[in-house]
Amino acid sequence: MARLSVDPPDRVVVKIGTVSLIDSNGAIEERRMASLCDQIADLRASGIEVIVVSSGAIAAGLEPLGLKTRPADIPSLQAAAAVGQGRLLARYSRMLGERGWVTAQVLLSQTDFMHRQQYVNARHTLDRLLALRAIPIVNENDTVATDEIRFGDNDRLAALVANLSRARLLVLLTDAKGVFSKDPKRFPDAPLLDEVERITPELERAAGGRGSEMATGGMASKLSAAWVATFSGVGVVVASAAEPDVLSRVTKGDPAGTYFHPRAERASARRLWIAFARPPRGTVIVDVGAKKAVVDNKRSLLPVGVVEVRGTFDAGDIVDVAEREGAVFARGLIRYGSEELGSARGRSTTEFAGREVIHRDQLVILTEGNSTT
């Protein structure tokens, strides 16, 4: 199966990692950033719409604050982000402005993906900016969003933005040539994967851990982001930012980095929002019959099929649905709180409350064998 190519007026999300912008001393790499801005401007001039998700704000704020290494405490991280975000955007604005393009800062937090109206508003903002020929520069709102700094990474943000903006391709630029069959730090002769049809548990285990001390992600986070995006129907390329003309090559479908094939069918915007916009608050364990009814027969999940409730959640929260062995196969908006469902599990709907645990219209079947994190 061939790689997809991107043509005007298709939309591309380009995620630029910290290691592609910041040197080992915490300073912005001017020549690398200029090269990337040249490529972004060329794509935009060709009629392809580009959204940039840029890391590097915290790292860019370390040097001017006199910090030698990335701090561990949240207030210092927020301070570095507050300083670095302005410096980073100023560089993008100057470099892309010199190439004839207006930039727009878009700061997003988890809340913007958790609430449906904010999610829709963010989409409308991006649509309007692109219609006005601006290039959105997206980052997490690190100065206030403590959860994003502590646990998040911009790979996942980029995947969610690709989902939200209905992009055709997500390009994750990093310092690696792509994804290898094994961790290249442990196995230097591991071959580079040209294409990936499906993300397997074996590939996830081979991804290794965190990469640079300046960054929060690593290849594992890129695989997780690739799974979110490909499930959403978006093609993904993981490639080196140092590769010559990398953005031109991957948008033409030429070999560069590792390409992840998207699902053939794209789910509705609402189902994608249910699946990925909000983190699950708990897990509902079901029996074999309930799984068959949900997956094969496209039925709602009923209390009678629930065997265990894990976590604390309220009615209206997002929860995972898993087998007894723990493999997650679905996600949905639940109609019971965890305490109430604990009492209702194993009982028929006529016996208890007369309503489904998750209605079939609020339930998304996930690809078996893949992680949802």
Characterize this entry briefly.
The chain is an alpha/beta fold and 373 residues long. The protein is built from 13 helices and 13 strands.
Explain this structure.
It is a single chain. By secondary structure, the chain is of the alpha/beta class. It folds into two domains: 11-271, Carbamate kinase, CATH 3.40.1160.10; 280-365, PUA domain (Archaeosine Trna-guanine Transglycosylase, Chain: A, domain 4, Roll). Helix content is 36%, strand content 18%. It has 13 helices and 13 strands. The strands form two sheets. The chain has an eight-stranded mixed beta sheet with strand order 3-4-2-1-5-7-8-6, with helices on both faces. Strands 10-9-11-12-13 form a five-stranded mixed beta sheet, with helices on both faces. α7 runs parallel beside α9 (219-231). The radius of gyration is 21 Å and the shape is globular.
